[in-house]
Amino acid sequence: MALLRQPLLLLARSQQVKNLVSTLPVSAGIVRGYVPGEGTEDAVRAAGELAADGLTATLDFLGEDTSDRAQADATVAAYLDVLAALSAKGLASGTEVSLKLSAIGQFLPPDVAPEGGHRVALENARTICRAARNAGTTVTLDMEDHTTTDSTLATLRELRKDFPETGAVLQSYLHRTEDDCRQLAHEGSRVRLCKGAYAQPESVAYQDAADVDRSYVRCLKVLMEGQGYPMVATHDPRLVEIATSLAGRAARPQGSYEFQMLYGVRPDEQRRLAASGERVRVYVPYGQEWYGYLMRRLAERPQNLAFFARSLVSK
Ligand code: FDA
Questions:
Q1: How far apart (Å, rounded) are the C-alpha atoms in residues 177 and 175?
Q2: Continuous H helices in 29-174
Q3: Residues 25-58: pLDDT tens digits?
Q4: Which residues of 158-186 are buried (b: 16+ CB within 10 A; e: fewer)?
Q5: CA 20 to 30 Å from 187, out of 21, 66, 115, 197?
Q6: What's the whole-model pTM score?
Q7: How large is the C-alpha radius of gyration of the chain?
Q8: More confident residue, 74 or 8
C-alpha cells in the first residue's frame, strides 16, 4: 500500500483527473466522509456539532494553487463570510480558520499580479486575520509543499507584527523542521506539528515512515519544552501517547497544548481525548475544491481506494 502513496500524491496535482473526479457530488460517500459540505452553513453546522461534543474546530475553505485573481478574491470573501457567520452564532471563540496562501494569491503570475503573488497573498491574509480578530478568533497558515516553506514562514513573520496570534504549521518529514521548531518555540507562538502530506524529494525530506515519526518526536520535544503553544496534529496512536508523556515531562498542564485531527478521521479518538480533559481541535475542510484534499487523504489511507472507485462508478 505504501507504494501507492507517491502516485496518488502526483494525481493530486493532475488537472485531467481532477476534471473527471470533481464531477462527483460532495454528497458521495467517500467525499462526505472527509468534507461536511460546500457552503458556509455546512461548515458552521459542523463546528456547532463538534462544539456540542466538547471539541473545537478550525475551518478550511478548500482551494489551492490558484493562478486566477478572481478566485483568490472569492476565497478571501468566503473566509470573511464564515467568520461573520461564526460570530453571529456565538461559535467564534472555539472555532478558528486555517488558510492556504496558495489559495489567496501566492502563485499568481506576474501578468495578473505585477506586485508579485507573495505580496497579494500577504495583503489578503492580513484582511482575513483582521476579520478573525474582530470576530474574536485566530488564523493558522497551512503549510504546502517544500517550495513554499520559506515564503510561508516569511509571510507568517510579517503577519505576526500586527497579529501575533497567527499560527504556523511545520511538517516533520522535512529535514529542516527541527530547526524551524527551535525558531518558533517562543512565547506567544502557536505551532501545529504534522507529518506532512505532499510528495517531497529525498534532498529535503525523509522518505521512510519511521524516520518521519522519529523526527516528529524530536520536533515535539522542542515544542513541548519551549514557551509556545504546541498543536499536535496527528492520528497516530503512538505519537498521541508520546505527546501526552512529553507534555507531562515538560510540566505542561492540559490546555497549554492541544491535539488536532481531521474531520472524519478517528472521530471516537477525538471524543475520547476530549473526555479525558485534553483540548482537541478538528480540522474541517469545506467547499467545492475538495479534489486535492481528498487525494492526499487517499494517499494516507489507500485502503479507501476501493470505496472511492465504487463512488465514481455509481455516480
Ligand atoms: P499516519 O498517516 O501514520 O496515520 C496514523 C493512523 O491514523 C492510521 O494508521 C489511520 O488509523 C489513521 N489515519 C490517518 N490518515 C487517515 C485517513 N486519511 N483516513 C482514515 N484514517 C486515517 N499536512 C500538511 O502537509 N500541511 C498542513 O498544513 C496540514 N495540516 C493538518 C492539520 C491537521 C489538524 C491534521 C490532523 C493534519 C494536517 N496535515 C497537514 C496532514 C498531515 O501532514 C498528515 O498527512 C496526516 O495527518 C496523516 O498523518 P498522521 O500523523 O495522522 O499519521
A1: 6
A2: 29-32, 40-52, 69-88, 117-135, 149-162
A3: 665 677 888 999 999 999 999 999 999 999 999 9
A4: bbbeebebbbbbbbbbbeebeebbeebbe
A5: 197
A6: 0.94
A7: 18
A8: 74
> Tens of pLDDT along 243-293?
999 999 999 999 999 999 999 999 999 999 999 999 999 999 999 998 889
Mutate which of 95, 149, 191, 262 to test ligand 1's pocket (most atoms within 8 Å of Cβ)? 262
Dihedral angle, C-alpha 287, 288, 289, 294, nearest 10 °: 80
- To the question of domain 35-289 being in CATH 3.20.20.220, the answer is yes
What are the extents of the domains in the chain? 35-289
> What is the average pLDDT across 160-184?
98
Whether 272 is a known active-site residue: answer no
CA separation for the pair 13, 248 (Å, rounded): 41
CA of 116 to the centre of ligand 1 (A): 32
Instruction: Give mean pLDDT, residues 211-222.
Output: 98
Q: Which three cell numbers stand for residue 150?
A: 520559506
For 163, the 3-state DSSP assignment is coil
